[in-house]
């Protein structure tokens, strides 16, 4: 069985860079098995590949596979999937719903920016900086703010770094990050710093065979909530820059909706994407 695999880059900055994802329409006579989806994701080698199929409770069902395993949610692969739907002229409205393992979420499209609803934030453990001595240069960690696990769909450890220079100079020990990620049941570590009004990030998820990722939607959704709560930083739109270390500049936008008590009610992660190419894979040869 030969299938078409679309490749899109999500969270691109000025239609360059971004984070590539595979996009597959799972609508063949013989729908793909989990083993086949895993094999396709591994063959492509991108951080995530999204599989789109029909849903009984939403406009589309999306499943996400890394080269290693299935994950419940992926921001950049969702943006990538809707970039391909847009490229194929399959979108006719500005609001859609998607069924995911993290629940039914809303997608809104405005001026070519695709926004994806996330879950409300959940704040977990605060972790001592001492636990990261063997992972990254501990002198780079900004001790003015807590290191905390936060999730808006996937759990990440958020680590404040003192400066942009320090952030880009880091040479992480991926084996140690893998151990910590496994211990705390998180996807990985999301490091951030400020340079005037800019917020710059790096993301390491070696537990999922992704040493570093150019753009991460769920991580930055969690980070915006964390900044709102811990830094008391309120913005109409949070703009996160990522991917410079991989020579793939990315821009992730996050909007927070709050209630009268200033509690976060809704989280939306968005960005622009562009179509890259179409590949053709013979599934039988891969499994």
Primary descriptors:
287 residues; alpha+beta; Diaminopimelate Epimerase, Chain A, domain 1; 2 domains; 8-stranded mixed beta barrel; 5 helices; 17 strands; 19% helix
Characterization of this structure:
There is one protein chain. With 287 residues, the chain is an alpha+beta fold. It has two domains: 2-116 and 273-285, Diaminopimelate Epimerase, Chain A, domain 1; 122-271, Diaminopimelate Epimerase, Chain A, domain 1 (Roll). It is built from five helices and 17 strands. The chain has helices at residues 34-44, 75-87, 164-169, 174-184, 217-230, and strands at 2-12, 19-25, 49-53, 60-65, 70-71, 95-100, 103-110, 113-118, 122-127, 147-151, 155-160, 188-195, 198-205, 210-213, 238-242, 250-258, 264-282. 46% of the residues are buried.
Major beta sheet, strand line-up: 1-2-3-4-6-7-8-17
Q: Based on helices, strands and strand pairing, what is the structural class? A: alpha+beta
Q: CATH homologous superfamily of the largest domain, by name?
A: Diaminopimelate Epimerase, Chain A, domain 1
Rounded to an integer in angstroms, the radius of gyration calculated over CA atoms is 18 Å
Through-space gap between termini: 11 Å
